[in-house]
Amino acid sequence: MKVLIAALTLSATLTAQRGDTARTLDGVIDIHVHSAPDNVARSIDSIDVAKLARTRGMRAIVLKSHYEPTATMAFIVRKEVPGIEVFGGIDLNLTFGGMNAAAVEHMTQVTGGFGRLVWMSTFDAENQVRYSKENRPFVRVVKDGQLLPEVKDVIGVIAKHNLVLATGHVSPDEGLMLLREGRRQGVRDMVVTHAMQAPVLMNVEQMQQATREGAFVEFVAGSIAGPGGPARVDSYADAISMVGAEFCILSSDFGQ
């Protein structure tokens, strides 16, 4: 799994195809791809996004859904779109019962073994719900300054099966606690999910702490579109420079 994370290459070369200038992404892996079918509108479906990635020369994509497991979809897409690796994962929101080690264990048993990422809660995370000022149930990872036992159980399954721990939408302090526990339990690959995007909003010092725990820091293109995008690109570049490019992952957060 180290290859899946580390092989996100920085190479992006320009080449001429059919008279048009097209950007190739030879060997690139995108670990953050949303696609239909989903519970919200997506710009492209899972099969077509795999075809698109293949035409750009990409090595692999990881399909992500906030509320559905994607290991099964990865198996199907691989059959329909040969020539590119497709992986999936599980996002521990309320649809899975929150911090549910059994759900993670089950994902590892899905045909093909292509479910490789475990995102801690995203839109149902306590940090997200409070940031959005919503009054609804949420998934908690910390109580009284300590990780909950069920969270440690989930991390144990991640370590057992050599999966990737991604922090989701938890707060910076919670994310660092997850990474420390992951390191303690022997998790090899960890990612701070879109560290500078709301509601995570890690500062540079916190990102540096994350790398010291053995994590990569993710920056996503989805947050630089629209008004204010150029300024966010500059802030990303500054942060990457201070954190160290070797500890950073560029992802698309595709499908918005």
Describe it for me?
- With 256 residues, this protein is of the alpha/beta class.
- Helices cover 34% and strands 21% of the residues.
- The chain is built from nine helices and twelve strands.
- It has helices at residues 2-6, 46-55, 71-80, 101-107, 126-131, 149-160, 172-185, 204-212, 229-243, and strands at residues 13-17, 20-24, 29-34, 60-64, 85-91, 115-119, 142-143, 146-147, 164-166, 189-192, 215-220, 248-251.
- Strands 3-4-5-6-9-10-11-12 form an eight-stranded parallel β-sheet. A two-stranded antiparallel sheet has the order 1-2. The protein has a two-stranded antiparallel sheet with strand order 7-8.
- α4 links the parallel β5 and β6.
- The longest helix is centred in the C-terminal third of the chain and has 15 residues, at 229-243.
- The two termini are 27 Å apart.
- Mean pLDDT is 91; it is low at 1-21.
Provide the spatial order of strands within the biggest beta sheet: 3-4-5-6-9-10-11-12
Give the helix tally. 9
Please state the oligomeric state of the protein chains shown. Answer: single chain
Please state the structural category. alpha/beta
Rg computed from alpha carbons, rounded to a whole number of angstroms: 18 Å
* Unreliable spans: 1-21
Helix content: 25-40%
Beta strands, count: 12
**Dominant shape:** globular
